[in-house]
Amino acid sequence: MACHLYNVALLCPTEGFVSNGSLTIRDGIIAARGAAPNPGETVIDGKGAMCLPGLINTHNHSPLMSVRGMVEDLGFAPAYTPGVPQGHWLSSEETQILARLGVMEMLCAGATTIVDYYRMPDALARAAEAFGLRAMIGGRVMDADTASLANGRFLHDPKLGEATLRAALDLIDTWDAKGNDRISTILAPHAPDTCSRQMLHTFADLSAKTGKQVHTHLAQSKMEVAQVRSREGLSPAELLEDVGLLSPDLVAAHCIFLDEADIRRIGKAGVVINHAPIGNAAFGAAAPVIALREAGAKITLCTDTKSADMFEAMRMAIAAARWRADMEFVLDAKTVFGWGTVDAARALKGHAASGTLSVGSPADLILLDPNAPNLRPVIDGYGIVVHSGSAANVTDVMVAGEWLVKDRMPTRVDMDTVIRDAQKVAENLWKRASA
Predict the structure, then answer these.
(1) For the Amidohydrolase-related domain, which residue ranges apply (predicted)?
(2) Left, alpha or beta for 188 (phi > 0: left; psi -120 to 50: alpha)?
(3) Spatial distance between the Cα atoms of 302 and 317, rounded to a whole number of angstroms
(4) Which of 44, 90, 97, 107 lies deepest, with the highest CB count within 10 Å?
(5) Collapsing DSSP states into helix, strand and coil, what is residue 114?
(6) Which of 201, 141, 130, 208 is nearest to 168 (CA)?
(7) How many angstroms separate the most distant Cα atoms in the chain?
(8) Residues 382, 378: Cα–Cα separation, whole Å
(9) CATH numeric code, 56-347
(10) pLDDT string in tens for the chain (435-residue length)
(11) What residue segments make up the domains of the chain, in order of their start?
């Protein structure tokens, strides 16, 4: 229940960089920094490893690992792309098998808290629970026909809306009642183009009633903007404002295709942005996150399934911002490190993570390989981690004082089994897609 981790270089967004530090951990909490070990504590030599707060990956759909490496050359998102496996093909068992692969990758890449939502949300929750990390889980709700969506047609399907909403609410009833302090639930309508006005109103009411944040996609494609303008005569951001969803309790992914009025509107409302620079860049896009931040929005980082590497996401966020700013140095390593840790912890509700290594915080931390050449030399810590670090550098991951990854292997679940099972499911899905 108590350990003393020493000979580590501590890098914390609030406490700064300590080249030779130590942490005392008791009952899952950081009890002291720089103290001497007490009798009875397990003493662990970090061997010079860099020790960071666990990363917070704020927007994912873990079963979509099944299309990685394939969909990137075909379309911006699987749900809108013909010829790729679709989520409505999956059984609950298949969803859990694929989710286990996605969750395992995120955990081993240093994410100690994730946001994950998709169909069959109970399967996502069970996958996250098996590995032991913190997870905010939601059921993806939409009332646009999914089979037609991949072919560019938006057809209202009230039965699908009812079924997905029921699954989402069942998830909340079941998992909130369990009292698992590492698994929390969220509200997750898919997007303004795939949810009717009535469905969006339903989520505004649910958010007001439950106090839960609403996680959704917003302005992620030109198709979405065109569909909402055709249907409503409004931009997607205007529609969410009109139904009462544009608020500090809205957590919106992507936010790429926004005009200046929408940026001001989102910023004034204090919306939380899930910035996905890797996925955006994959189809040639870059979100106006600096303008959104300056307008008042809160910025967090995510990998959005196609990569679990939050180090790459931090690096790409800087590159994308500088590209949009015509090569001005408008973003730096320390800022994006905060986006991936403490800023995300503060922006999201309903979890216990702090995103720091401060005394009194949950002991959610990661260790980086002390022998990795790409992590040397270390001067201020932030620069080398963000500009040169990699998920492959993560060797050990702790959540609430429990080692969930040791020497790059998950401690609760067999890695080989997870990979083998997911490979089989994915192969069968792609055979069906090509038939």
Answers:
(1) 51-403
(2) beta
(3) 10
(4) 107
(5) strand
(6) 141
(7) 69
(8) 9
(9) 3.20.20.140
(10) 799 999 999 999 999 999 999 999 999 999 999 999 999 999 999 999 999 999 999 999 999 888 887 777 777 666 677 777 777 888 999 999 999 999 999 999 999 999 999 999 999 999 999 999 999 999 999 999 887 887 778 889 999 999 999 999 999 999 999 989 999 999 999 999 999 999 999 999 999 999 999 999 999 999 999 999 999 999 999 999 999 999 999 999 999 999 999 999 999 999 999 999 999 998 899 999 999 999 999 999 999 987 899 999 999 999 999 999 999 999 999 999 999 999 999 999 999 999 999 999 999 999 999 999 999 999 999 999 999 999 999 999 999 999 999 999 999 999 999 999 999 999 998 888 887
(11) 3-53+361-415, 56-347
> Exposed/middle/buried for 414, CB within 10 Å: 0-12, 13-18, 19+?
exposed
d(CA 182, CA 192): 30
Residue-wise burial string across 56-83, b where 16 or more C-beta atoms lie within 10 A, e elsewhere? bbbbbbbbbbbbbebbeeebbbbbbbee
Integer Cα distance of 184 and 32 in angstroms: 28
Q: Which amino acid is at 89?
A: W
CATH 2.30.40.10 fits 3-53+361-415, yes or no: yes
| Contact status, residue 125 vs residue 116, Cβ threshold 8 Å | no
As given in the structure block, the two tokens for residue 161 are 């809306």
pTM: 0.96
Sequential DSSP letters for 224-252: HHHHHHHHHSS-HHHHHHHTT--STTEEE
* Residue linked to tokens 């007001």: 208
